[in-house]
TrEMBL record:
Gene3D superfamilies: Collagenase (Catalytic Domain) (3.40.390.10), Neutral endopeptidase , domain2 (1.10.1380.10). It comes from the Eukaryota. Residues 565-756 form the Peptidase M13 C-terminal domain. The lineage of its organism: Eukaryota, Metazoa, Chordata, Craniata, Vertebrata. Its cofactor is Zn(2+). SUPFAM superfamilies: Metalloproteases ('zincins'), catalytic domain (SSF55486). PROSITE patterns: NEPRILYSIN. Residues 30-39 have a biased composition (Low complexity). The keyword Membrane applies. Keywords: Hydrolase, Membrane, Metal-binding, Metalloprotease, Protease, Transmembrane, Transmembrane helix, Zinc. Pfam families: Peptidase_M13, Peptidase_M13_N. This is Kell blood group glycoprotein isoform X3. Residues 119-256, 264-466 form the Peptidase M13 N-terminal domain. It comes from Ursus maritimus (Polar bear).
């Protein structure tokens, strides 16, 4: 037996048996030598320190591998995330709105704009360069709403007998029945003149008591020849209803010829509103007794009691008089005329009534009125008024007399619950933006700021139509005091030659409808259209008086639901946006958000700023930083005065500075609300083929609201000319210059701007 070898160490055994060799991982596969032969498993001639691997080398190797793998993984993640972002932004970016309402809006924008003009030089022409007189945005929208009412009134339907719907449709039909009106001729008017004592030029004239004639004109015909009287809330607290006496409205040439003597003398007594405001005499409160002493020619108690029945009046009844000096001079003039030219005074009153009633008479009277208006336009150098179609006048009169009925029908068709919800969502965004902006107004002290924010928070908003218009039962309100409208009788053609037919003079088919039986026809029976018109005048006045005598839990709307004017009511602290305003092209749930925020949103913000008008007036905010506020207002005044008008002149904005402030603030608030919307909501769209970004479309939509032909503005309009309403706010907005890339110093990118809001 051989002695057992001494125990060897584990490394020795592994090495001698050809086992684990750390260097294999660093040689080529198969252990081939560089010379191509099989290399021995171990190089016995290596230095001892090279025979065993270093303990740190494998860790260093794997650490490098891990770093490379980590770097590659991070690069892959970043690349994938970038691709994902690109995909998200491409898929959620502004795509074109391809719906019919967007194509219609695009057609409007292309028709009114002039893209050959540089937006940084003249953005008004860029947006409104092709707009003509009838293309005024608000006027065009009002006409669209009237067309909708026309479609409603001319649609066939069955209504409850004697209901508001039936009477409204009958009145409209009788207004459109020009054949019957022509056949009646001047006979209905002669009857009215005879009730008033006749007219010298008509042959039979009876000199009646002056105040009796005046009382009849006011109470039975709604005509006020020497002053206006109406029932409205007081303009100051407590805002209770009160009879108000105001200046008359003249529409005849004010020259010194004998025929216009009374008008000329009355006209010289009138004082402009600005003059009365400067004198601190916008209105005065007097009793009927006191007014009787100061203007004794008028029997005030008798005339007002007849006009405002069933409102009980007494000599101690308070009246709100807008121009007491005018009433004193008017009374003296009437007394002088009664003593020398009583017949002339009577003729003056009858002539004015005929002019008022001419729209309800045949074509000869209407043509005479058109000629008068044309002559007036020439004398006053005003542009001629375009002729309006008959249907539009009939729609307006039907809407005036039967508003409760038509309100329900209009809202049902034009202002769906989804439209109202979208409009309310827009208003909420605008209101929140205003509350946020109030925190940064530099001239407000902290107390005023908190009060202003509370005022906005507590504000009521009425949108679409009054509460009562949304109740179907009120659409069937019966107008018991409205007399019957001209009615038709269905007869056979043989009877058309009877004495009854010859007496009526009516041989036409009901307008807008066809007969299923060709052997039948319609003839006219009943009162004339003029009589129906006067019946509606009396009914409307009685309803107005009655509504003020009763407690009313809601805000009394000052516009019809199809109107296009928003307003803020100080007494009720409520802002009103009628359904007629929230229509294309100003608003539609399917429009790009940029359009709704730029158009309807800026209008909403403008009206909200009316809450703070008082703060901008001298002494309106004693606790505010007066120096900062006055500096901002002076900056605003200078800003508007440096923007040229189309004719090269400049505009004095002293009279319009409150509306200018609301225009600038309204645009800024709407832009802030829209920018926040873009940040937090996806799915923005733009108009196709217009090549405008969402922000550019926002500004384009704002300008579209102001589109109208320059020079067509009324002198008493409290707003600036349309070019200034566009250039003033937009040039004061840095974002406009940024998104349209306007060079520094251009009209729309001035060197300095104002910060009022």
């Amino acid at each position: 037996m051989h002695p057992l070898p001494e125990p060897a160490s584990l490394p020795s055994l592994l090495l001698s048996s050809g086992g684990w060799r750390p260097e294999w991982g660093r040689t080529r596969a198969g252990g081939m030598s560089r010379a191509g032969g099989m290399r021995p498993p171990w190089n016995q001639e290596r230095a001892p320190e090279e025979r065993l691997p270093s303990a740190t080398e494998p860790g260093r190797q794997w650490s490098m591998v891990r770093r490379m793998l980590t770097a590659g993984l991070l690069f892959s993640l970043l690349l994938g995330f970038s691709l994902l972002l690109v995909y998200i932004f491409r898929s959620c970016g502004p795509g074109p709105c391809m719906t019919p309402v967007c194509w219609d809006l695009l057609a409007r924008y292309l028709a009114s704009g002039n893209t050959s003009v540089a937006p940084c030089t003249d953005f008004f022409n860029f947006a409104c360069g092709q707009a003509k007189g009838t293309d005024y945005s608000f006027q065009a929208l009002a006409e669209e709403n009237k067309k909708r009412l026309r479609r409603i009134l001319e649609a066939p339907g069955s209504w409850h007998l004697g209901s508001g719907e039936e009477k409204a449709f009958q009145f409209y039909s009788s207004c459109m029945d020009t054949d019957a009106i022509e056949a009646a001729g001047a006979a209905p008017l002669r009857q009215v003149i005879e009730e008033l004592g006749g007219w010298r030029i008509s042959g039979n004239w009876t000199s009646l008591d002056f105040n009796r004639t005046l009382r009849l004109l006011m109470s039975q015909y709604g005509y006020f020849p020497f002053f206006r009287a109406y029932l409205r809330p007081r303009p100051t607290p407590p805002y209770t209803p009160v009879i108000q006496i105001d200046q008359p409205e003249f529409d005849v040439p004010l020259k010194q010829e004998k025929e216009q003597k009374i008008y000329a003398q009355l006209f010289q007594f009138l004082r402009p509103l600005e003059q009365r405001r400067a004198q601190g005499k916008l209105f005065q409160m007097v009793t009927i007794d006191q007014l009787q002493e100061m203007a004794p020619a008028i029997d005030w108690l008798s005339c007002l009691q007849a006009t405002f029945t069933p409102m009980p009046l007494s000599p101690s009844q308070l009246l709100l008089v807008h121009d007491l000096e005018y009433l004193k001079n008017m009374s003296q003039l009437v007394e002088e005329q009664l003593s020398i030219h009583r017949d002339f005074l009577q003729s003056h009153m009858i002539l004015g009534l005929v002019r008022t009633l001419s729209p309800a008479l045949d074509s000869k009277f209407q043509e005479a009125r058109r000629s008068l208006i044309q002559k007036l336009g020439e004398l006053t150098e005003r542009p001629p008024m375009p002729a309006r179609p008959r249907w539009m006048k009939c729609v307006e009169e039907t809407g005036t007399f039967f508003e409760p009925t038509l309100a329900t029908l209009f809202v049902r068709e034009a202002f769906s619950p989804s439209t109202q919800s979208a409009a309310m969502e827009l208003f909420t965004a605008i209101k929140n933006a205003l509350v946020s902006r109030l925190r940064r107004i530099p001239w407000m002290d902290e107390k005023t700021r908190k009060e202003a924010q509370n005022r906005v928070t507590q504000l009521q908003v009425k949108m679409g139509a009054p509460e009562w218009a949304l109740k179907p039962s009120l659409a069937r309100q019966e107008y018991n005091d409205v007399g019957p409208c001209p009615c038709q009788l269905l007869i056979s053609p043989q009877l058309l030659l009877s004495p009854l037919t010859r007496l009526s003079g009516r041989q036409s088919v009901h307008p807008g409808r066809s007969l299923t039986n060709p052997f039948l026809a319609l003839i006219q029976l009943g009162p004339s259209y003029l009589q129906s018109f006067l019946s509606c005048v009396r009914s409307l006045r009685a309803r107005i008086v009655q509504s003020f005598l009763q407690s009313f839990p809601y805000h009394r709307w000052q516009v019809s639901p199809w109107g296009v004017n928003a307003y803020y009511s100080i007494p009720d602290h409520v802002v009103v946006f009628p359904a007629g305003l929230l229509q294309p092209p100003f608003f539609h749930p399917g429009y790009p958000r940029a359009v709704n925020f730029g158009a309807a949103g800026s209008i909403m913000a403008h009206e909200l700023l009316h809450i703070f008008y008082q703060l901008l007036l001298p002494g309106g905010c004693p606790a505010c930083d007066t120096r900062a506020l006055q500096g901002a207002l002076l900056c605003l005044k200078h800003h508007y005065e440096t923007i040229p008008l189309p004719n090269g002149t400049f505009f004095n904005g002293s009279r319009t500075f409150l509306e200018n402030a609301a225009d600038i603030g309204g645009l800024a608030i709407a832009l802030q609300a829209y920018s926040k919307r873009l940040l937090w909501h996806r799915g923005e769209t733009i108009l196709p083929n217009l090549d405008l970004s969402p922000q550019q479309l926002f500004f384009r939509s704002y300008a579209q609201v102001m589109c109208r032909e320059p020079g067509t503005q009324e002198p008493q309009d409290p707003h600036s000319p349309p070019t200034l309403r566009v250039h003033g706010p937009l040039s004061n907005t840095p974002a406009f210059a940024r998104y349209f890339h306007c060079p520094h110093g251009a009209l729309m990118n001035p060197s300095s701007r104002c910060q009022l809001w």
